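I am going through a labmate's work and have reached the protein record below. What it holds is a sequence and that sequence's fold in token form. Please read both lines and tell me whether the tokens look consistent with the sequence. Do not assume that whoever made the record got everything right. Thanks in advance; the entry in question is below.
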Amino acid sequence: MERKKMRKRSWAEPYKIKMVELVHMTTREERQKALEKAGYNTFLLRSRDVYIDLLTDSGTSAMSDRQWAGLMMGDEAYAGSENFYHLEDTIRKIYGYKYIVPTHQGRGAEHILSKILIKPGDIIPGNMYFTTTRLHQELAGGTFVDIIIDEAHDAQNLHPFKGNVDLNKLQALIDKYGAKKIPYVAIATAVNMAGGQPISIENLRQVRELTKKYGIMIVHDMTRVAENAYFIQRREKGYQNTPIRDIVKEICSLTDAATMSGKKDALVNIGGFLALNSRKHYTEASNLVVVYEGLHTYGGLAGRDMEAMAIGIRESVDDDHIHARVGQVEYLGQQLIDHGVPLVQPIGGHGIFLDARRFLPQLPQTAFPAQTLAAELYLDSGVRSMERGIVSSGRNKETGDHNYPKLELVRLTIPRRVYTQAHMDVVAESVEDVFARRKEFKGLDMVYEPKYLRFFQARFKPL
């Protein structure tokens, strides 16, 4: 008897909705005025003028009922809050690091770490830059050098682990500058600027072996480590049946310290920490956090914020949660791929990265194609995205000219537990409509440029 072919079963989010936030629906004319007022920079739009906000997944997640209940358990003592010790215990159990210094968010941890470890003239290799990380390294007198594999700079390359380090590039830097000039290697999991691309356990082990040989630390930017673990579970041999929680801990065990923005994986609206295994570095960080953030047992956070982060960390490594989180990103990405929209592949963990070079081939990079595309997408539907290209890359500190990254991207970043699949359908339809009209767009000119992190506050006008 012939067996019936089983159809693929649908999946749904592992949660149900208890509360909703109403959004403001706008007309195209209203969006045109808002865009002009914002200088064609989506960061300068008012939230009330945005329909579906995919600017970032940082601090935009929906907290769980348990996290909201945790807010009511806030111990707001200035020193020695019970919530700090709960957070400390959680980080040790889930991630494995010995010492914890809370900070108001990830860049607070980057600041303190850079002041502790970097001396003027130092070289910091890393698997692709991130904006705030690189700036803190430069302000401390260091120079970031990209050692990610070449495939990461090719949006169409299908390498399953485009966050991997090129070991030959790392060795060449050590040979050129000497190990004493390299305070640490910066390793990001689920590399943001590459499109949310993961690093493999195998590659991280190789980096660990090489750095150990020279006595060089590995500092882990772990803000999306659970998403990276998801791809290891899906793609790396021998991990298919390993729980996300165990993969996360193994990743962390191959590093010496970590900076964390709890506003991503940890599902909170504010908060972060610096994690260390060195008692010496912990003592130095505890001294500096008092200067820049707050006492070493609160680091600029309320007790309730630390409690919510501790609960969110535990929720973040649940297999059902992370499968649904990345699954929603993949759902949107596959719709766009099916309609021929150019984007970074494989699809990453926290967002879809439209390839503005291929989307708008008529525009030179100096006409800011990614910035143009982000503006046109908002104008079309009220969907807010962000530029990740020449504007984000900034200027060469020696020549003063723009940095010209190979990737010119628009990031559609999906907040965790916020939007439905219907919202993703709306986004896909808008991107497809803009793609159909892509030959109409002329580009932008930058009319105001701030000194630091210009993508946040720069202003533009149409060419």
